[in-house]
Every structure is written in C-alpha cells, then in structure tokens.
Amino acid sequence: MAKAIGIDLGTTNSVVAFKDTSVRTITTGPDNQELCRSCVAVDRKTGDFVVGNSPYNSWKKYAPNIVVSVKRLMGAAISDEQVQKMKTQRSLYPYGIDKLAGGTDESVAVILNGKQYTPEQISAQILRQLKDDASVKLGEITHAVITVPAYFNEKQKTATRKAAELAGLKVQRLLAEPTAAAISYGVDKMGKDEEKVFLVYDFGGGTFDLSILVASGGNFIESGTGGDRWLGGDDIDKALMNYVFEQTNKENDVNVQEIIEALDNRKRFAFQGELKKQIEGAKKQLSNSNSASIEIFGELETEDGDMVDIDVSVTRDQFESLIRPLIQRTIELVDELLDKTGYPIETVDNILLVGGSSCIPLVRKMLVDKYGEEKILFSEKPMLAIAEGAAILAHALSDEFECPSCGEMVNKDVDVCPHCGAKLNATEEGEEEPPILVTYTTKHNYYIKLESGNDKIIEANELLPFEISRKYKTSTDNQKIVELVILSDAEDGNLEKIASGFFTIAENLPVDSNLTFTFNLTETRIQQASAKLRNVFVKALLWC
C-alpha cells in the first residue's frame, strides 16, 4: 500500500514529514533541506516550473516570473483590499496579479510569463514537489494530511483540496495548523492520563494563527480559533525594508523607491532580489546580535548620475521598535480569542509558540511580560512541528504501514509484526501508543440569506458533525424555485457568500407555505441541505 505523509503548506516555507514508529522530516530539493521555500518560478526558455529554494535563491534569474506567498491568494477575491495591496508591492511580489479570465467576477489569477494561473495551480506545484521528494525516499505516496490556518473559510479549504488534487494527492484531512502543532507537542510531552488546555500561538511567515485546544491523552478538541491571515513574517520584512528606504532617503535626499522603479526590468529584479535576501538575513541576525547591516553598493543612481548606495545599520532596539506594533496586534488577537471563547487566561495551562516568527526574542519577551513566564512554552522545532503533527495524524488514519525492522506491510492496529516479530506501536515504556483523535469545531458563524435579512443557522465553535433544522416560508404564490445562499463571517467583519444551490417545488403552494430546511456540516466541513415539504424530502446541492 502507498504511504501517507503530513504536509505543512506554508506561506514562506513548506515542510513534509512521515511517521511509522517515529516521526521524521523528509528533506527536499537537491541540497536535502528540511525547509522548502514556497516559491514557484517559470523558466523563460523552457516554460517549465521550478520549485523551492533553488528559484528563490536565483531571484534575479526568474523575476518577475517567480511567485512567493501564494497562500495569501488561496480562495481570495480580486477585490480584497489585501490582494490589491499585494498587486502594488512589486518588490515583494513581482509576479502579476489580476482577475482570472473566464472565472467568476472575483477569481484571482497569477500571471507568469504572460500566462494566467490560478493560485491552486501554483500551490499544486509546491505540493507535487514535496510529494515527489518524499516518494524518492519512502516509495509511492498517494495520501496526505495537509495543514491550513485554523480560520480558513470554506473557499480557502476548497482551494487547498483542489491544489492537492492537481498534485496527485488524496487529502485524508485538512488539519488546522495549531492543532497539528499541538499534536506534535502533545505526543512528545504529555503523559497518558494528563489533560491540559493549550493556546497555540503560531506566528509564521505569512499568517498568524491561534487555536485553543483541550488535550487529553491522544484526543484534541478544537475549542476556538482566531488569527489574521494577513499578518506574519512578510510584514516584519516590509517594516524593516521601509526603514531602510527611509534612512537612505534622508541620507541622500532622494526617493529611493522611485529610483528603483526607474531601473530597467533586469536591473530592478536583480536589485529587489538582493535587497529581499539582505532584509531576511538582517532579521535573522537581529535575533542573535545587537545590530545588523543592509549594504548594496553601486546599483542605484539618480537622473543626474549621482550614486545612491544602500548602507543602513539597524540596532536590535530600532528593529524592535519597528515591529512592536505587529507583535502587540498578535497579543490583542490572543485576548480577543480568550474573550470570545470564554476561556480566562487562568484556565489555559500553556501558550505554545510555533512558527518561524515566534523565534524573534521580542515576541517571546512581550508574551512573557503579558501572560507570565510559566505559561509560555517554546517549541523545540518551531518550523517543523506543524508538518510532524500532520504526519502523526496521517499515520493514525492509514490502514497499513511498513514494519521498520523487515519492511513488510502490516496493519496499523497490529502490536507485533507477523513477519519478523518486531514490536510495533509501542512507547518507550512498552505501553500501547494512544490513537490520535481530533474533535473538530466550526470556525465561523453561518447564515442563510433571506429576503427579510440574514438568519444565523450555525454558531462558531459548534462541535462537528453538526445538524440543525429551521422552518421558513415561501415568498410568493405557486413558488417553483427556492435558492439557498449560505453566508459566513469574513475577516473584515462583513459576510461573504460561501455556498449556494437550488431546489424546485412541484406543487402549487400559496404564499407563506412552510418549508423545513435541515442543514448539515460534516467533520470535513462539507455542507449539505435538504428541504421537507409535506413529508417529502428534497436534497439541495450546495457548491462553493
């Protein structure tokens, strides 16, 4: 039987992991690195896709046909304010972003080498690369648990499933990233009978994700989610880059952004690639040193021919002053989640930090100052924990795996290999490893659209699967068609359409005739609806 893997499909980096009797990260790319850049480029000459660290490190070779942070576009609308901001930030996102030709009015397209691609197609290239690299080391891969931000809505999840399908992967589960991190941490650290409440603080490269989880043995119950998919390490990079521009402008009495934009394409992309590399390097250096420098000489000049060099030193104090508002925003989101879910901070045993941006010393200091040192736990593997948690669940969902002693396939429930007699699925103490169970909850409020307004049908944080029935009335005499429109709360506080469908009424009914609707939401958040009219059920097809 083919194997199942866990994938952390990240905004900045992606990771693939596998579990049999232990959990391990699968290295990827020609240099066998644990972190694979979520970067996709198109070779101008061949038209082939190139994925990972190699195109990222050759930015000037591929730009503008190079994509980063595509996760931010998954399931997004072209009219989204943040998508429009990405379009203007060409130094960070050199590829084109436009409305998808032939798509809906809100569909987003990524433009590479003059051709449009959907965000799902770009993400599929990353997933396919991870799958292929894992297959080289493990054998055939067909299934995966793929992680997503906890607050991803149905459109974003559907886009992720589509990307997996394009990559040739069957999705066992879409697992919330904080839950994956907690699974990884819990399996390593928690006792069999121990029960704890975790708040997972996942500060990644492109998203900030929060989740409250009740962990008991191998069972994880999602009890609340929050965060901001437009907040992450990319924003820290932008703050530092803006500081570099401001200091250079003051020192040279110029507008360095205008000078950069005036360069021909080749020089501009080369400069932007070098600047991006140095900004990231300085950010990492400032986590371990008191200062860092960003230096680029001989690349820029004014219209009068005067050279403008980038030569800016940044102290850790200056850096922390720049990013403090971003970190304060994460703390505000933590407090909002605690208030929304009714969990006082006293009831939370630990705040678990994961994600690359959580390694920044100021992040840890501000959280310790706010919530106390005893609350804060630092993941030993902040960049790998999410993929490892996904791999643990993928293993738990698999029917078979290879015996690590003899290589023969054995059923996951077998304690002793029938081929070689090796002990399987045992802890160091020889006790049977508990199953990994995740109890899912709704992440958003759901509404049905009525002529009189919107009626909330499902509350956030309801346990899944969930079912509810509501009575509504026909709006006209002899009404023949009923349109169902399901809405969900969006990040900007508005409601967005996430699904719709129709069913017909064969009978001639007077206005205000009763219709009973039953709405179902599965553990995988697939929506179904049925209507009852005089004891006859009619299922309505809903689509995202």
Automatic annotation (TrEMBL):
SUPFAM superfamilies in UniProt: Actin-like ATPase domain, Heat shock protein 70kD (HSP70), peptide-binding domain
Keywords (A to Z) from UniProt: ATP-binding, Chaperone, Nucleotide-binding
Pfam families: HSP70 (PF00012)
Coiled coil start-end: none
Annotated InterPro entries: ATPase_NBD, Heat_shock_70_CS, HSP70_peptide-bd_sf, Hsp_70_fam
Keyword Chaperone: yes
Domain of life: Bacteria
GO molecular function: ATP binding; ATP-dependent protein folding chaperone
The UniProt record lists the keyword Chaperone: yes
Family label: Belongs to the heat shock protein 70 family.
UniProt protein name: Hsp70 family protein
Higher taxonomy: Bacteria, Pseudomonadati, Bacteroidota, Bacteroidia, Bacteroidales
